[in-house]
Structure formats: structure tokens, C-alpha cells
Amino acid sequence: MSGTLAEDMQAIGKAAQEAAAVLRSASTETRNRALVKAARAIRANVRKILSANAQDMAAARAAGLSPAMLDRLELNEARVAAMAKGVEDVANLADPVGRELARWTRPNGLDIARVATPIGVIGIIYESRPNVTADAAALCVKSGNAAILRGGSESFHSSLAILDCMHEGLRAASLPETAIQAIPTRDRAAVGAMLTLSDYIDVIIPRGGRSLIERVVAESRIPVIK
User: Fold this and answer.
1) pTM above threshold 0.90
2) From CA 77, how far away is CA 49, in angstroms rounded?
3) Distance (Å, whole) CA 55 – CA 86
4) C-beta atoms surrounding 84 within 10 Å
5) pLDDT in tens, 5-38
6) Which of 41, 44, 88, 156 reaches 20 to 30 Å from 221, CA-CA?
7) 3: pLDDT confidence band, cut at 50, 70 and 90?
């Protein structure tokens, strides 16, 4: 973060909006290539991801997190491999963009179709599971949407290491890295600032416990899918 929190959040929002325009016009093959390359990067960087996770785990133990929370936070080689496979599985899904949802003909002969299109910029706020960083990023890229991610502070280093791999995939497909951004601070005020970015974020999705969802619903100036 280089300026004030508000200034930095505005810059993140603007960059995401510009990247969303690029993703919207990207081909199915381009978006899938980004995901396949990201999955390979996750596998290739397993040591880096586990090292970052070890930092998070040490801090979490020192903070007295419960065994259940520690288990959600912890990564190992099997979990990283499953994360990479999950990204590949998303790449192998049928392209949701351009899918015909409904079609009907008016009495005057006008043929009308409802077709799925990208939303634009999706803000996703989630808690301690670092694998959600890969899941959320992959689903957004697949559906032609840019994403601004705010993971739990406990998984800060793990999520950034995973995000680096997603960026590697985007670069390999000649897509902007700003298509997937994470809030680069653990400051809780960043969540509140994110919920005011109605000029840039089209929808907010909270993923977590009741208190998180209630806060997002209460404070958001952006439509929420809870």
C-alpha cells in the first residue's frame, strides 16, 4: 500500500475495472490457458507456498488459534496438489460465457435470447482457508470476471504466494495480472473501504461465518450475494 488506504483501494478498483474489460473479450482458449498455466505454477512452487504457509501457521499458533482453525489454515503437499487440480478442473468446465439461458419469440415474430455474460468485477471476502484464493481466482477467470480478493489475515502470506502463481498463469496467457488482485494489507479497515467501491466493484461475495456475512450485508454499498 503506497498512499492512504482510500487511495490505494481506489487504485485497485480502477485497475480491476480495466482488467475486466480485457477479460470480457478474451477467448475461451485464452482463459483456459491462463488456468492451466496457473495450475502448473502452483505445482512448481509448492515449496514457496508451504514456506509462506509455515509463516502463517507459526503466527496462528502464537495467537492461540483453535485446532480447528489451524487445520483450516494448514497446507501440505497433498493439499497444494489438490488446489492445483481444482484450478485445472475449473479450466475443463464448459465455458459459461455466451451460454444461452432462455429463448422465446414475441407475437410480432421478434426472436429474443437471454445470454450469460460476465458480471465485471467481483469482490470476494473470505476467512482462513488459503485454498479459496485459488478457487475464487479460477472461477472468476473462467467466467470472464476480474476479482478483488480479501482473505483472512491468518492466511495472508499463503494467499499471496498462491496469488503469485495465478499471476504467472495470467501472464502466460497475455492477460493482465490485475485481473486478480488481493488487498495487500491485513488492516481490517480495508474490508470497510472495499465495501464502498461501488464505482468499481459490481458484486460482493462473502464466504465465511455468520459474523462476516452480517458485517458485509450491513456495511456494503455494493450488491451482495450471501
Assistant:
1) yes
2) 9
3) 24
4) 22
5) 889 999 999 999 999 999 999 999 999 999 999 9
6) 156
7) low
